[in-house]
Amino acid sequence: MRMIRIYADSTNDLGPELIARYNIKIVNLYVNMGGKTYTDWVDITPDEIYDWSDANDTTPVTAAFSIGDAEEALREAVERGEDVLFFGISSELSASCNIFRLAAENLDYSEHVEVIDSRNLCTGIGLLILKAAELIESGETDLHRAAEYVRAFVPRVMTTSVIETLLYIHRGGRCSAATALFAGALRIKPKIFVADGKLTVAKKYRGKQNDVIRRYYAELEPDLRRADPDAVFVSHTGRLDEAIIEEIAGKVRALGHFKHVYVTRAGSVVTIHCGPGTLGVFYIAGE
Hints:
Structural class: alpha/beta
CATH architecture of the largest domain: 2-Layer Sandwich
Number of domains: 2
Largest sheet: 6 strands, mixed
Order of helices and strands: EHEEEHEHEHEHHEHHEEHEHEHE
Strand order of the largest sheet: 10-9-8-13-11-12
Strand content: 25-35%
Radius of gyration: 19 Å
Shape: globular
CATH class of the largest domain: Alpha Beta
C-alpha cells in the first residue's frame, strides 16, 4: 500500500509546528534582494526584508524554485515509493505548480503526483493542506480521491486582509507614487481579497489601522459564524500592535465555532507585496 505525502511550496505560511506535525515536505521559493538570492524561510526573515526595503527604498522580488529543486525534493518520495499531493501558490501569481508538474514528468512519476493549484496564497493554502492532512490521517490512501476531495474546497477558501500602507505595493510597481502618497495622507487602508487566483481590492477604509481592523472584523463576523468549523487563521505581516492581533484572535475564539484558531506570521511573499501592519482572517466558507 502506497502512502500519501504532502508537499507544498513555502508560501503556505503554516509555520514550523504544523509543518512538522503533518510531516509536510517544503519546496522553497527564493527572494532576490540587493544582488543576492535568499531561500524563503531559511536564510531570510520578513523583518530583514523590511529593513533592507526601507534602507534602499525599493522592494525585493521573489522567484519560484527551479525544476532541479523540484526534482531533488521529489526524489525523496520516489525512493520511498510515496504518492505526492503538492500544494502551490495560485498559478496566477507564480509558476510553482507548473514547475512541479514538469519535475514529476521528468522523473516519470506523474501518475503518482497530484498538483493542487490553490488559487490562493499564505494560509489560504494552509487551510487546504490541513484538509488533506486530516483526510490522510483518517486513513485515505487513494491519491486521486484525496486530490478530488481537496479541490472541492478551493473555491470556498476566503482570503481577505487589511493593508496598512500602500508604500510596499508602490515599490513593487503595483500603484503610483501619487496614489500611495494620497492614500497615506488620507489614511486609506485597502481591504484586499483573492478572487480567481488574483489579489483584488474589495473596499477602502479610512482611519488608524487598529480601528480599521476592528471594523474589518465586525463586517466579517457574520460570515465566520457560518464558516467551515475545522480551522481559521489570523495571519499578519508583523510590525503590528500585538494587542490588536490578540484582540482579533480572541474575538474569533469567543465565537466558539472553530475547532482550531491559528495565529501565524506571514512569510516573505506576502511581506514583500503587502508590507508591514497587514492583518487578515482566512477561513473556508460554509456550504
